[in-house]
Amino acid sequence: MHLERCLLNINANMNKIFNHKLFEIFFEKALIALILLLASLLTNQALERYKLIEMQRVAGTTAFVSACQEIWSKIYEYEDTVNDVTSIRSSRWLLKSLGEKNLKDKDVEIEKKSKLKEQQLNDLRKLTNERKFVIGHNFVMHFWKYVGLVEARADAKNTAQEKEGYEAKISQDAVEAFDKKIASMRFTSDMAREYAISQLPR
Prior knowledge:
Elements: H1 2-97, H2 104-135, H3 137-162, H4 165-185, H5 189-199
């Protein structure tokens, strides 16, 4: 009887120990599963945040490059027209120096191109105002400085042709200086993209 009671006590104690061990194992497994679940959620959140940041970076870079391309396109159209006006004036000056009296056609041509130039300048002003939040103040200033140099070069070309001696030489030197400065200010789409990427937060 005593032995039987002892065996029952031992059995009861064994059951308690077994149940306790089972509970410990279950608790450890549940804790590990919870930790893995939290880690997975945090990893997914970090990944989604990274994807969102990358999408914004790509979108911002694309918008910047696209805006620069649009503005350069308008500037080059304007520059071509300015050069056309300069060429027509040069041709008119040459005809006049050769004694040509009837220069009306040249005057009409100059007036027509000058009106086109003004329209292109207004279009450019409107476009840079629309894109200033994408490209930023410094690039707006860069583009307008370029336009100013194009105008200054045209004036210097006209002066170089119409003047003589020392004044003509100074004007020609100015044209060459403007040419170099204008060339140094041009940048390609790839250069714009590299710049935009370099400015994005890391």
